[in-house]
Specification:
The chain has ten helices and six strands. By secondary structure, it is α/β, with parallel strands linked by helices. The protein has a six-stranded parallel beta sheet with strand order 3-2-4-1-5-6, with helices on both faces. Helix 6 runs parallel beside helix 7. The chain is globular, with a radius of gyration of 17 Å.
Length: 245
Amino acid sequence: MNSIAFISPKGGAGKTTASLLLALGLVARGCRVAMIDSDPNKPLARWAELPGKPERLSVHPAPTLHDLADARREAVRAEPDWIILDTEGSERGAMAFAALRPDLVLTPLGGSQLEANEAIKAAEMVRAFGQRGGRPLPHRCLLTRIPAAIRPRSLKTVVSQLRASDIEILPTALLEKEAFRALFSIGGGFEALEASKFAGITAAKANVEAYVSAVLDLVGKTPAPDPGHPPSPPAPPQPSGGEAQ
């Protein structure tokens, strides 16, 4: 069983969207995924109440830090291949990853100076925790909400600042896609968006496919397809975040 935590001391950085897209991408590859929603606003729990939630994806709310242990036990009982933790956008909430001791910590951020500052703070938190535990935790920043056509100068500045702080960046960015936001109003996954005749699904799915592959390459795991649930066919290649970096 593998585990990934999404953290940021800042709200609105894209943690919940990034965690849900990773979960849906892993489910599409035949994995069973349990998500722990430790945001007091419970955005993932609310998404799970909408129609169309994949059978192989479960959501376990943990609105306070005291609820994390119970939520983790419930998640483990679901016998998942992956546990994904989405945290509250605050410094205190971000430390919830310590309870999971994940295989990888991801910090989403957009191309703003404020988000870069908070991402550096998150990286320092992860480093400090790894030093105290005697085992470094892999950490990457994940660029999110990136324009597909134009790479703004501010984004290049953010990337340079992260690299100057010895912070590594996931090679694939999540692009700005209306389809990603629509998941939280329509429910389900990309199949539900396709059924709703939503535009831009092909490009959105290709971006998610590249994102999931980048995470799997980093963790070093290639999920074996479940014979009873064959994975979706590979999507066309998606431009990575390398151009922005």
